[in-house]
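LOG
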Amino acid sequence: MRSLRNILWLTGKELRAIRTDRVMLVLIAYVFTLAVWLVSDAASTEVDHLATAIVDEDRSPLSARLSDAIRPPLFAAPVPMTAGQAAAAQRAGEAILVLTIPPDFERDLHAGRATTLQILVDATAVAQAGNGASFLRQTLLQELSAALTPGAASADPVTVVFRNAFNPNLTSSWFSAVMQLMNNVTILMLILSGASMIREREHGTIEHVLVMPVRPHEIVAAKILASGAVILLASLFSLVVVVEGAMGVPVAGSLWLYAGGAAIYVVAVASLGLLLASFTRTMGQFGLLVIPVIVLMILLSGGMTPLESMPDWLQGTMRTISPATHFVIFAQAVLYRGAGLSLVWPEMAVMAGMAAVAVTIVLARFRKVLAG
């Protein structure tokens, strides 16, 4: 009972310290509101008004029809250019796609001679260029079919019908908004937990704590509880108010189930932040140490690129050492697909195991630091 009172008292002390850190409060508010919206909505990889140029060397009714078929919202109105102008536009980054229609294109088609349309793609914009080229090719083939064989029925014996589950319109912001929120939980949890330790050292208050009748596990538990509670509440607010409310992203699963999994995750990440802070003495040193950890956890979590696209050895490594990988799998299943506890409990169990290991390691390290 005394240990619980000590933990609660120390947790209150940590919360008061966070409340007086105005820079940290502003950072938390920004990261869980404006940053989520900016990254997910403004930084879109969808094909939208893609800059297109057309080199029409045929100047026939059919080439004009193909040019008219390239229209918003997928493509910007195509700009007629010469071959030299189109090449210069692509070098300047002003045209992602360049369609070239050769001379006598319509005449060759009606005469039954083979002919070619050329699409030059600026592949530096990988996602937009790849999808845009596919959409442009499909648009051209549909328009050519309608022009050359009007009213012809499809010769395909089977009709394949697509249904997009969980994201009917393939809106990228639905995915990126939730994933950005997950990334922000990771970033802020590492920074806030580590900062709580560095703050004690830089202000000299760690000596005051050491002369109090408290034990190392009570100090660690209080730091994890305080920083974890702040980040968990901020993430829930962002999910409900910003992602679901302001951005209109539907959340399919249970908010309580997500909160339970996120609570386990923040314990694991907070322990990691404290562990990293135990090897440093200033915020500058801690920042240099935590940045590569954040980059690896986020880029290799499966939230930005599919986990299945990584080498097998890297998948196994990340599943073994990083709770972020399991948190992304858990969050996607609950928030996107509406999965229940029966489907996500293995990921929650793995995160709990990682949290237990992390807490054990940071306790051992913390005792060593305090003894020194």
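LOG (cont.) second protein
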Amino acid sequence: MQQKTHQLLSQSIGTRRELLSLHYGRGDIDVKVYMQASLHADEVPPMLVLHHLRTLLNQAEEQGLIAGEIVLVPYANPIGLSQHLARDHLGRFDFTSGENFNRSYPDFYDLIIDDIEPRLSQNEDQNKQVIRGAIKTALSHIPRATELADMRLTLLDLAHDADWVLDMHCDFEALMHMYVDTPYLDQISGLARYLAAETVLFAEGSGGSAFDEVQSGVWYRLRDQYQGKYPIPLAGCGVTLEFRGEADVSHGLAARDAQQIFHWLQSIGVIEGEPSIMPQALYTPTPLAGSDAIKAPVSGVLVFKKRLGDLVSAGDVLAEIVNPNDQTITPITTKAAGKFFARENRRFAIAGMDIGKVAGPDAFREGPLLGA
């Protein structure tokens, strides 16, 4: 294993942060898997998962079993890891700019579309390398004017040429779930089954330029652009993995998740050896546009009436908000029929606060689909 340290731009005198990347494999097969933990730095469970996976990969490398290339970034956001205020860890938004750490990544398609066509051919593998080379060159021309920009571009440098990009997060309280671009649903089914994902949400671009979507979007958009003219592979499968809730931090869960990722890596040939039998799917894919992101209309004490995993119908009461001033009780209902898969972990609501999500089969939302 090769360990690399990436020094980030010093934002202020006397400060310096760094990223760490771990590089495994012989490179005998042309398959690269990239995994990063906790881009939202207060979402801790993925860091423990990669801790346990790292142990398994170290053993596999000692035995010469890693045929492809695997890159781990054990913590993807040293800026957010340091952001604490009044004993609360605030790792979703950059204190300096106010930006979400998992939004506003440069769109690979926009970076290369003006110049790529003359370099394409009838050779699909060659086109894959040409496109990756164009992305690498385009990224090198983007200024690294701030520490946040430097961090984003460093992560993209590490991930842009991967066949699989696993961006590992968690929710407040949630079932194991995943987000993926629609054209890649079939590709990620094995990973979803090994990880026992209970909800898989798909969209063809959800808005916001999240890390995983810029990896995937360029490939299917180029494929659509040049359909019938040049063969473009669906390379760069980016997926967001949500490892349950913030409090789901235990060696038991993390070791099990790491072992299942290891089996998945065996199943795609990156690691030699016979994987365990792929489990049955626990999910039916649902459109992200069919997911009801439920907000609190009033403030008060939040009391849930439904449990995670419950199947609900449109109009069902998921929770109540109790006003301690006048004892008013406000029922909170869902527009969607489906699985109640995520909810807030705070129990005092303010008006407009997101309090839960239901994954339904019928799309009804339009416009940007990701929250802040």
